[in-house]
């Protein structure tokens, strides 16, 4: 009897010990559905081999669904996620609220100084790095080298808006269904307003002055919108007010656009011979300027952040450090080739001679470096953000203004009316929110 | 003469009905077609899409990347669970409203329906907080309760209109024969209302299956149904139409088949009471 009891006790103890040794931490990672993130999910074996005690559970969602979900969760401290993929828009706002764990104590071999300054600047709040960049992007001009040659023009590395207009005019062949320029027209703060806000920076416009007064009644915004409408109405594809990134990508891949100004990440799509009919005829240039010292390109990064209050901070940090490390970039290069490495986060990547062979590498880096989220406009402004204003109200405001501008493109209102409406609406909202005293 | 007019009229009505039916079904048909194309072909002009090669590539990729069966099972549990629970509550409620109406029954019915008119996102934060505090986030039981409550007004309304059609005299006769309330509902009313209950059940299974706000907001992985499976394939930056179409087709296929086989009951249930 005694023996049996002892044996049972012994078994229990050894089972408990074995259980403790096998105990693994499961972390839930919320992420967006884009190529780089999906690729990482396929490379998790490498992480598991290094950290067998951490199990990663993925929740992949469409960007807007994800944004709503993680915002609800973090604002209510729901604790559903241990790592969240957030944009450069959320990072400063959430960081200021104290919702994110500081990443200042990442190990030395993480080499935080290697992060691109423009990207790191947008993710630092009061000296704390609140999110680690996974991939960064800017916007640039993608153009058809064959059509440019046919038009008798040479695209400079850093074109002006006037050149873009001239090239669009010469490349347009409406009978042959070739349109000189394709730009975003679909309403939304991350759709047409991302493009138009970045474009307006180069025209010397801004959303707000130092007293948070909206500036849509000023000449630079009038110039921006008129120029955009003129460009699109004369040389753009029909129905452009419904076009977002995907629609323009499809048009460009089918050879219907002479030029397209959009996210640098598009470069890998349009040069991929599997999907693109023009893969070998694409050139790249910096986003245009107006000679005022600012270019019309944006800056965005998808970043990994850890919500404050997670029970699994250590495991989450280990994962974030791995996913955004130099080693991870090397791992992707080894398994999938250099062109598939997540771009735009680390200086060392662009110093790598292998990576320099990727055709759009240099232009991506130059574009990112040409954007400064802390000084986005020609004049001084009270906000951070290139193609957005990092205040919680911006999502709503941006989308509402986007609808007015999209309506102007569709021809249902005039540029003047759209700007007047925007000015009135934004003034009301900013007064209500207490920015305008 | 009059017969001829009727024949022509019938032909016109038939053609119109088929045209409208086809127009409504077209997006689903197109989704199914795109799911059998490669990503490159899926974005071509419509005619080129039809003539391009067919492949199962997208289905393979979707299968590889996600656990379809897990999501499918969650959808089944959520939609059936919430519908059965709703019926359990709604049958007695509809019985009392139909056969022993009070002064305020009509108002009560309207009030119940009015809860459907509020935008769901308006109560997102309070709901999320309650779920957090009760530990119900990402659990099937929590979602079953929410979906039950969401569809309860419709279930009560449908059953109510159905029960109204049943002559009260039959129930009276049963009572005279000594049936108590329980056996009256169980053995007289329910069997007579089976077609109505069946169509209510079907419609609510479909509604719960397609519910895409709460199921997305309140789940992460364990309880995530097919709505989240679809959402993981949509992307504003990157063309994944073929994969998205394949995921959508896989998500709607079960309910499409169910709807196909039960369309008679569905139509009957939906139009019942409307011809009075």
From TrEMBL, chain B:
Q: PROSITE patterns from the entry?
A: ABC_TM1 (PS50928)
Per UniProt, what is the membrane topology? Multi-pass membrane protein
Q: Does the keyword Cell membrane apply?
A: yes
Q: Which Gene3D superfamilies does this one have? A: MetI-like
Q: Which residues cross the membrane?
A: 12-33, 72-96, 108-129, 141-163, 184-209, 240-261
SUPFAM superfamilies this protein is in?
Answer: MetI-like (SSF161098)
Alphabetical UniProt keywords:
Cell membrane, Membrane, Transmembrane, Transmembrane helix, Transport
Locate the ABC transmembrane type-1 domain: which residues?
72-262
Localization per Swiss-Prot or TrEMBL? Cell membrane
Biological process (GO) annotations held by this record are: transmembrane transport
This protein's GO cellular component annotations are:
plasma membrane
Q: Where does it mainly reside? A: membrane
User: Which family is this sequence assigned to?
Assistant: Belongs to the binding-protein-dependent transport system permease family.
Please report the name of this protein according to its UniProt entry: Carbohydrate ABC transporter permease
Organism whose genome encodes this protein: Gemmobacter lutimaris
């Amino acid at each position: 009897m005694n023996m049996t009891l002892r044996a049972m006790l012994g078994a229990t103890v050894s089972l408990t010990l074995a259980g403790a040794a096998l105990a693994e931490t499961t972390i839930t990672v919320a992420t967006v559905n884009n190529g780089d993130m999906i690729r990482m999910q396929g490379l998790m074996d490498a992480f598991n081999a290094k950290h067998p005690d951490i199990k990663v559970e993925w929740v992949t969602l469409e960007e807007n669904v994800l944004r709503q979900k993680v915002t609800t969760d973090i604002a209510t401290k729901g604790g559903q996620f241990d790592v969240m993929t957030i944009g450069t828009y959320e990072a400063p706002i959430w960081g200021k609220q104290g919702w994110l764990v500081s990443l200042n104590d990442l190990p030395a071999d993480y080499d935080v100084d290697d992060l691109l300054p423009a990207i790191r600047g947008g993710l630092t709040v009061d000296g704390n790095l609140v999110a680690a960049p996974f991939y960064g992007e800017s916007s640039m001009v993608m153009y058809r080298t064959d059509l440019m040659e046919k038009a008798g023009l040479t695209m400079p590395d850093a074109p002006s808006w006037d050149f873009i207009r001239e090239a669009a005019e010469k490349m347009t062949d409406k009978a042959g269904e070739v349109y000189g320029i394709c730009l975003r027209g679909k309403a939304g703060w991350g759709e047409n307003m991302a493009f138009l806000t970045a474009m307006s920076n180069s025209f010397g416009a801004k959303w707000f002055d130092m007293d948070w007064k909206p500036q849509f009644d000023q000449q630079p915004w009038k110039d921006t919108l008129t120029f955009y409408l003129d460009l699109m109405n004369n040389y753009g594809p029909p129905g452009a007010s419904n076009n977002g990134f995907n629609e323009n990508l499809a048009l460009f891949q089918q050879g219907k656009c002479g030029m397209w100004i959009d996210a640098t990440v598009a470069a890998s799509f349009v040069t991929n011979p599997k999907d693109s009919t023009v893969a070998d005829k694409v050139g790249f240039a910096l986003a245009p300027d107006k000679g005022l010292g600012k270019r019309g390109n944006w800056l965005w990064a998808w970043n990994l952040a850890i919500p404050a209050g997670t029970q699994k901070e250590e495991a989450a940090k280990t994962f974030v450090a791995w996913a955004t490390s130099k080693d991870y970039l090397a791992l992707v290069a080894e398994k999938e080739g250099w062109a598939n490495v997540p771009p735009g986060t680390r200086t060392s990547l662009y110093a790598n001679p292998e990576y320099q062979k990727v055709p759009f590498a240099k232009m991506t880096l130059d574009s990112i470096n040409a954007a400064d989220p802390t000084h986005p406009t020609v004049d001084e402004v009270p906000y951070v953000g290139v193609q957005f204003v990092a205040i919680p109200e911006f999502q709503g405001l941006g989308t509402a203004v986007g609808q007015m501008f999209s309506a102007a493109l569709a021809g249902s209102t005039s540029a003047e009316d759209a700007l007047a409406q925007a000015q009135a609406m934004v003034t009301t909202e900013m007064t209500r929110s207490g920015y305008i005293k | 003469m009059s017969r001829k007019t009727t024949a022509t009229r019938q032909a016109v009505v038939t053609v119109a009905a088929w045209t409208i039916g086809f127009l409504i079904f077209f997006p689903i048909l197109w989704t199914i077609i795109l799911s059998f194309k490669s990503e490159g072909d899926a974005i071509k002009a419509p005619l080129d899409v039809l003539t391009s090669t067919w492949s199962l590539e997208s289905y393979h990729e979707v299968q590889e990347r996600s656990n379809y069966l897990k999501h499918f099972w969650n959808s089944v549990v959520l939609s059936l669970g919430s519908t059965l629970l709703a019926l359990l509550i709604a049958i007695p409620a509809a019985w009392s409203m139909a056969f022993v109406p009070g002064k305020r029954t009509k108002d009560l019915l309207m009030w119940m329906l009015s809860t459907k008119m509020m935008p769901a996102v308006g109560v997102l934060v309070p709901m999320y907080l309650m779920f957090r505090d009760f530990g119900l986030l990402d659990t099937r039981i929590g979602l079953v309760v929410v979906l039950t409550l969401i569809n309860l007004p419709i279930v009560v309304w449908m059953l109510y209109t159905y029960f109204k059609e049943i002559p009260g005299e039959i129930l009276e006769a049963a009572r005279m024969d000594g049936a108590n309330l329980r056996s009256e509902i169980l053995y007289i009313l329910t069997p007579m209302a089976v077609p109505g209950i069946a169509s209510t059940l079907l419609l609510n299974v479909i509604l719960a299956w397609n519910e895409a706000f709460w199921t997305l907001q309140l789940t992460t992985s364990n309880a995530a149904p097919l709505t989240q499976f679809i959402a993981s394939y949509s992307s504003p930056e990157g063309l994944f139409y073929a994969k998205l179409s394949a995921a959508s087709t896989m998500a709607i296929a079960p309910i499409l088949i169910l709807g196909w086989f039960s369309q008679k009951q569905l139509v009957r249930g939906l139009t019942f009471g409307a011809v009075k």
